[in-house]
Write a structure and sequence with these properties.
Length: 392
C-alpha cells in the first residue's frame, strides 16, 4: 500500500486505468478529467515506497503548481526539500524531482522508477525529451512511464498514441470529460453549445483534431454593418519592430449590439518602433472614439500602456494573456460558428486570410488583436473578460 496519496477517492475512470496499466501508459483525456490528480497519485505512491521518481511538465507554471500540491500533501513525510531545484525527499528514501520540458535535456543523468509526463501534448520538445533524456532514466529500475494529456493537434503525442496501440509494453486510453462523474452533465452540454465543434472534439471528447486552417471556416464569414451605432472597443496586439520578418502591431475595432451580434468594424496593422506605435493607437482611437482600448501588457509592451496612460486621456486597459493564443481566441471562434459575428464591408484581405489560417499561419497578430477586442467588450459590459487586467 502507498504511504500517501493526493486523493483517497479515485473516480471509476481512474480506477480503470490503474487496473489496466502496463509499463508505458498513454492516456488521452478531455479537460477536467482528473489527469493531473491521477499522475500525482502515481508519483506520490512510488516515492512513498522509497523509489526515485520524476515529474515532467511542459511549462514552469504547471511544474510549480504540481510541486506545491505535492509539498502540501506530503508535508508529514518530507525529510528534505529544495524549492529552487524543485526536489522533495521523503522519509524511507524516496525522492521526487520536478522538471520543465522547456529544455529537452530535462532529467538527463538521473535514474527513476517512474516518470510522469503531464500535459504531454503541450510539450514542444516531447520527442527529443522522451527519446534522448527521459526514456534512458528508466533503464536502471526498468521504470514505468505515464503520458497524460488533452490532445493538441496531431503532434508527437499522437505518434506515441498510435504506437501504443501496437506495442504490448504500452497501454492507451481515450477518455472524454464526461467520464469524470464529478463534472455535471449540464456543464458539458454548455461547452458543446459554446465551443467551436473542432475545439469541443479535442478539449472535451479527447479526439485528435488537425487544426490546419480549420478553426474558422470561410463560410462562417459574413458581411454587414450594425443597424445602429453601438459603442466601439479596440483590441491591440503589440510588436515593436520594423524588421520585415517581424510580427505586426495589429488593431481591431469591434462592436456588439444588444442582440448579441458582434461586428468587426476595422482591422489595421503596421511594423513600427515605439513612438510610431503610440501614434498608430492614437490615430485609431481618433477614428473610432472607443470606450475601451485593450492592449497586450507583458514585458516591454507594458511601457506602451504606461506611456498612453501618462500622456493621454484614452480609455486604455492593459491585459495580460495567461493562456495560449488559441485558447484566447476560442470564445470568439464559437460566435463565428454560431453566426454571431459580422465583418464590415471593405475589411482588408490580409485580415480574413490570417483568421482563416489561424492557428498555423505565418502570422497571428490580427487574431490576437480580435481576442483582445472581445475581452474589451467583456470589460465594457461588466461581464467576464477571459484575461487578466493589468494592475497599472
Amino acid at each position: 500500500m502507498p504511504l500517501y496519496q493526493i486523493s483517497d477517492n479515485p473516480h471509476p475512470g481512474q480506477r480503470r486505468l490503474l487496473a489496466e496499466r502496463r509499463r508505458f501508459n498513454l492516456a488521452v483525456m478531455g479537460r477536467r478529467w482528473g489527469k493531473t490528480r491521477l499522475g500525482l497519485n502515481r508519483l506520490v505512491a512510488a516515492a512513498g515506497r522509497g523509489r526515485p521518481v520524476g515529474w515532467f511538465a511542459p511549462q514552469y507554471k504547471l511544474l510549480d503548481e504540481a510541486f506545491r500540491a505535492v509539498r502540501q500533501k506530503l508535508a508529514p513525510l518530507i525529510a528534505r526539500q529544495d524549492a529552487q531545484q524543485h526536489r522533495i525527499e521523503v522519509h524511507g528514501g524516496g525522492s521526487i524531482d520536478f522538471w520543465t520540458l522547456e529544455s529537452p535535456d530535462a532529467g538527463r543523468g538521473r535514474k527513476y522508477a517512474l516518470a510522469v509526463i503531464d500535459e504531454s501534448a503541450m510539450a514542444r520538445n516531447l520527442e527529443e525529451a522522451w527519446t534522448a533524456a527521459i526514456r534512458p532514466t528508466l533503464a536502471d529500475y526498468q521504470g514505468r512511464a505515464w503520458f497524460l494529456s488533452t490532445p493538441k493537434g496531431t503532434n508527437y503525442f499522437k505518434t506515441l498514441f498510435d504506437r501504443a496501440g501496437a506495442d504490448a509494453e504500452w497501454a492507451r486510453w481515450q477518455l472524454p470529460t464526461h467520464d469524470n462523474p464529478f463534472i455535471r452533465p449540464e456543464e458539458i452540454e454548455a461547452m458543446r453549445l459554446e465551443l467551436p465543434s473542432l475545439i469541443y472534439q479535442q478539449e472535451v471528447l479527447a479526439q485528435f483534431v488537425d487544426f490546419a486552417g480549420a478553426v474558422l471556416k470561410r463560410e462562417w464569414l459574413a458581411t454587414s454593418e450594425p443597424a445602429g451605432k453601438p459603442a466601439v472597443v479596440l483590441g491591440v496586439d503589440l510588436a515593436l519592430s520594423t524588421k520585415t520578418e517581424a510580427d505586426w502591431t495589429a488593431i481591431v475595432a469591434m462592436s456588439q449590439e444588444a442582440s448579441g451580434m458582434v461586428y468587426l468594424r476595422d482591422a489595421q496593422r503596421m511594423r513600427a518602433p515605439f513612438h510610431q506605435v503610440l501614434q498608430f493607437i492614437q490615430q485609431m482611437a481618433a477614428k473610432w472614439n472607443p470606450v475601451i482600448i485593450a492592449i497586450e501588457s507583458v514585458q516591454y509592451q507594458a511601457a506602451v500602456v504606461q506611456e498612453l496612460l501618462r500622456t493621454t486621456r484614452l480609455p486604455v486597459r492593459g491585459v495580460r494573456p495567461d493562456k495560449d493564443k488559441l485558447t484566447r481566441f476560442l470564445p470568439l471562434a464559437a460566435r463565428y460558428e454560431q453566426g454571431l459575428v459580422k465583418h464590415a464591408p471593405g475589411l482588408p484581405g490580409w485580415f480574413e486570410d490570417e483568421l482563416l489560417a489561424f492557428p498555423v499561419g505565418e502570422h497571428d497578430d490580427a487574431a490576437d488583436a480580435a481576442a483582445y477586442a472581445w475581452a474589451a467588450l467583456g470589460m465594457a459590459r461588466g461581464g467576464p473578460v477571459g484575461l487578466k487586467v493589468a494592475g497599472l
